[in-house]
Sequence to fold (786 residues):
Amino acid sequence: MDVEAGLELADALVFAQTGQHLNDELQRAIFRGSWQGNTYAEIADSYPCNESHAKEVGSKLWEILSAALGETVGKKTFKAALERYWRSHSTKASTTLRNVASQETEGEVREAVSNSNFVGREGAIAHLNTLVNRAKIIVIQAAGGVGKTTLAQEYLKSQGFLVLYLPMAKEKESITAVESVVEEWLKRDFEEEPGREFGVMLTRLKRQLQNRRVGVLIDNLEPALDKQGRFIEPHRRYVELLRVLGDSTVQSVTLITSRDRLCDDGVNVEHYQLPGLDEQAWQQFFSDRHINIDTPTLKAMHNAYGGNAKAMDIFCGAIRQEFDGDMAAYWQENSADLLVKPDLKNLVTNQFNRLQEIDFQAYQLLCRLGCYRYQDVPTVPTEGLLCLLWDVEEARRRSIIESLRNRSLVEFHKREYWLHPMIREEAIARLRASENWDKTNRIAAEFWTESVKTIETVKDALTALEAYYHYLEISDFGQACFVILSRRDSRWRSLSEGGETLDASFYRLSLYQQIIFVCNVIIDKFEPSYLLGRIYDVLSITHEIIGDINKAMTYGIKLHKIAKTLNFKDLHADALKAIGRCKLSLWELDEAIIMFESSASIFEEIDVQRSATVAYYYLAFLKTIINSQPDPEVYILLEKAYEGLSKSDLSIWRKGYGFLFLGLTYSKLGKFKKSFEMYRQGFEYAKDSNFTHLLGKIITGIAELYREQGDFETAIANHSESIELLDKIGAKCDLAEAYYQLGLTYQKIGDTEKSQDNFAKAIRLFSEMEAPKQVEKVRRAMENRG
Fold:
């Protein structure tokens, strides 16, 4: 029986006797401290309070326990009395606990502790059940390796939750932005588009948590906390996430593991100080693994390491591997420096040092494994380990991996590997100090890059991005930039034809916040250059999609300045195109035409036909809008654009939007059949490539066509679908246009109320974008003035 199980039994006995629980925190602290052999002075220092007060409260506690147990007990005898009661009255004790805790809770405890690798935590599980009834967020606090993460995982598993797992980076510079975390949860775990603004993301997450049972595990929080226990400044918005997770209306339970106490006054949490495992748990663990138990040795090892769960696991591997299961022999050789209780840091350091002596190649691999982040991509496949053994003959590489596995120095499951956080901390510290820091990160980056051949899913995109973080670690910002701009084969365009860049994959998959975040990290690391220009282009495109037109324009102008200063004509043309897109979004049509005409002229001059094609279809659309009479030039532009679209070297982005704008232009010209054909091709293209933004815009265009042909029911159905898609991904400008088009449809039907309502929604969004000409366009329609 460990201290928590003892406290749980004592509480149940007192409750049965008096109808009251042991709720006084000092009483509980005295119980725990006395159980572990601490003096009143030591208990008072840790609580804190003065010693005399601790003795007074303790005296009352022993009186209460004496009455509950039916025998006189004191500070030195209560533990033995409780253990004796448990052994001799096990059935009665179980009955007493069931009278206090529900049968359902007891069943959950049994289920949680059924895992043979999870021992000695009956009391901890029961304590968590008590805390969960009081709070939505529990912080499990303890030193490294005590078993915080294992306890949290087993508890959530026992409850049958959908589990959302957030491992916090060990280096504060590598902590994932909370916006990216919520975005990924919504998209991957709930299959919901996250939206653009963080507040919207949190609202959608809260709605999901209100409708289903979810367990959230935030693992190893301490790197995100400052010395006062508050979130560090770059990550203060994690407080907003915790407020949602702690809301009384959600059905979720959040467990946070941390070495440090969370003391941020912005969140309300319960703390649970997780103790080490008791000696009985260690004995059970070693026995289950056929270690020869020597009782004095087991007691000495347990006392020296404070019942640390990770220490127990590591020792087990070492005893089996190096001493043929002989615990006493292992301890005889290794006990000299471990007679006093060390912390887990010392344990891990000793394990590294010993491995360095007996298997240097395995030691090098362990250190090199510290370079991986284990965050967005939480595990590394076998190939990711093999590539780090570049200086070992190929025939021996797998045996070295096996060496780490046998010593429990690397976690693994089905060919996937990861490091325990404390192991990784020591590994990365040693790797940084070695001559292999730079090379290891470069090889790891190359591994991630080569492991992703095509990008079709969110997981593919996040895996490919891992290379970026390795280059960031070694301050190779140029290579980090190349990761974002690198091209891969795709099902829609082969690499020989240009492939697809990683940034394009991210906004095709609606991962806008992540691509913005990684670009913002590096833009200040460059002098004006071609690469910086390309990153500005990425940021302009992404901000334009999410409707932040001012930022999109700012980045377009910065791109233009670099292009003019350094005389990069292709960048110059792309800058004009980026500014032109912003002008179109603002409905500043004449200025947009000037931008696209200038862009087309430069692309023609430098013979980049695929980029000129983009300018052609934008110009065809723009000139159709501004001219009341058909302009012969429009048909020339349409012919040029269509010819460009027929070529296979166009990117997914260029081709998809080509079908969209040709469809829009033919619709404005009254050529509905031709417009439908363009939309059909674009629709299939967008669906096949998971291009939600393009799909939403095309469906808006299709709705317009049905309206013009008098099929209002089908038009409204398409309007509703496009609005839903564009709202989910937070494409503000296109969502505003979709509301505007729906307003026009209701206006044509004669439903003034619904028409005005949708026009008002469009005006609100266009006003937020600071697009006065768009607002004026809608107001004219509201007044039915064209």
In short: The CA atoms of residues 431 and 437 lie 5 Å apart. Residues 90-114, 337-344 have pLDDT under 50 and may be disordered. The radius of gyration is 32 Å. Strands lie at 137-141, 162-167, 214-219, 253-258, 270-273, 380-381, 411-413, 416-418, 487-488, 500-501.
